[in-house]
Amino acid sequence: MSTGVSGVPGGPGGLRSVVRQELVSRQLDEQLASRYPVGQRLRVLDVGMGRGGQALRLARAGHTVTGLESDPEMMASARDSLEAEPAGIRERVTLVEGDGLQTGVHFLPGSFDVVLCHGVLMYVEEPDAMLAGLARMLAPGGLLSLLVRNADALALRPGITGDWAGALHAFDSPTYTNRLGRPVRADRLAALTATLAGIAAPLNTWYGVCVFSDTMSGDAELPPEAELDLLLAAEDRAGRTEPYRRVAALLHLCGVRG
User: Fold this and answer.
1) In 3-state terms, what secondary structure has residue 164?
2) Radius of gyration of the chain (CA)
3) DSSP assigned state of 6
């Protein structure tokens, strides 16, 4: 079966980015299908939407999406992508300049059925306050979707690539330098599970993302479709299977507002 990933906006990062986007999209769609009737149009807030790939994908599926982004370059890219969409999709998307700590400034509590926060927490030194604010944006029963760097697997990438000093450092510290050269932080599953319980959006389901593909070159090109299908099938299986999902580069956590 074809994956149909050619429509997934990979952005910078080539194959690794496409794999990440496709896996998170599949997992998110699975959670939405399990919680809401088919055809229901949801109110979605995408915090730190980046170039808008996930926001546009959900708008194409019929949902009303608000994208919140603080980086001017990312916002400009998202606006350009939105302008290329048909009018019916453009009218379902609202772009707002701001960051995840400002949700209470822009929106009323309970305004959204789904809140996404993908690839953002690693840039926030103390994320608990922001997470509490995101949970307040959810209507009762709403879904909070988080994509974070897995602190319990930080030693894998440097270890596999032969950076022994980096691997030893990663065992004891949740901080690391990302591929852009920026110092960032990772999160542990146990700590986030406790945080979600404390903000009344307890963890419902979690997945591993990029178990096998995290060490791929940043400019790796997409392989032939059949090979990409196999890669995605292997990643999808690993992200749901113990013990593999626990050593994934990223964790996708889904909490539900009580």
Assistant:
1) helix
2) 18
3) G
SS3 breakdown of the chain: % helix, strand, coil, rounded to 5?
Answer: 45, 20, 35
Query: For the residues of 108-159, what is the DSSP string, one character each?
Result: -TT-EEEEEEES-GGG-SS-HHHHHHHHHTEEEEEEEEEEEEBGGGTTHHHH
C-alpha 187/C-alpha 175 separation (Å) is 9
* Partner residues linked to 149 by β-bridges: 250
Region for 141 from its dihedrals, namely left if φ exceeds 0, alpha if ψ lies in -120 to 50, beta otherwise: left
7 has pLDDT over 70: no
C-alpha distances in angstroms, 9 versus 15, 144, 165? 11, 22, 35
* Whole-number pLDDT of residue 224: 94
**Which of 250, 244, 232 is CA-nearest to residue 26?**
232
pLDDT surpasses 70 at 47: yes
pLDDT tens by residue, 59-99: 999 999 999 999 999 999 999 999 999 999 999 999 999 99
| Contact yes or no for 189/251 (Cβ under 8 A) | yes
Q: What is the pTM of this model?
A: 0.93
